[in-house]
Write a structure and sequence with these properties.
- The structure is a single chain.
- The strands form two sheets. The protein has a five-stranded mixed beta sheet, sandwiched between helices.
- Helix content is about 35%, strand content about 20%.
- It has two domains: about 120 residues, Rossmann fold, CATH 3.40.50; about 80 residues, Glutaredoxin (3-Layer(aba) Sandwich).
- By secondary structure, the protein is α/β, with parallel strands linked by helices.
- The chain has eight helices and nine strands.
Length: about 220
Amino acid sequence: MTIVIVGMSIADVDRRDQLCAAATQRGATVAFLQQADPSLSTELTRLADAGADTIVLLGVSVGPLAPAHSWLRRIAAYWWRDRGGHRRPDILVATRLADDLGQLDEIAMETKPITGDEPGLTSAAWETVTGHRHQVMVCRGPRCAAKGSVDNLRAMILAMLEHKLGDNDVLLVHTGCQFPCNRAPVISVQPDDVWYGHVDPPTATAIVTEHFVGGRPVESHRLSR
């Protein structure tokens, strides 16, 4: 039996070292659902090709940035079905996510097998392009990540929830380096062509309340060309 600890959220990508340490203690491996390598699909393929008979997936979720537990099953089931005629191991998925690494052993006690009958990756609800007014590019490059871009993202999401801003208002996009690295962490807003630098969580909150709700940029952190 092989255990894979799966980082579900963007925040878990920034905790790679902690996830790897927890995996080493348990003789497990690490994969990520988004924004990092190895992806869950890549790791499942590697383990299957190496001869793994049973793979147990333990999902780790941090705060409001993580997708629902159902996505771990969806992605695992999609891989299992797509594997087709190749050798397929049994896949067991913990029935809930751990919101703390100390819960890994606890959630491993209750798992449910992948059957291939799980929902697919498409849905009628995900067909239409959103009519958002703003596209927010949150830099996740090395300097911005090191200086706390994930905390800014968390603050922005919470502020958007508070002000009931949905995809028709603001679309958050995670990007690689946006280049004015000395001003990290950087956030840019399109189509407004407004750039913010040295962003901290209070500033991220202000971008929501002043720029998106109030209609005026946060001048104190606005970057000039």
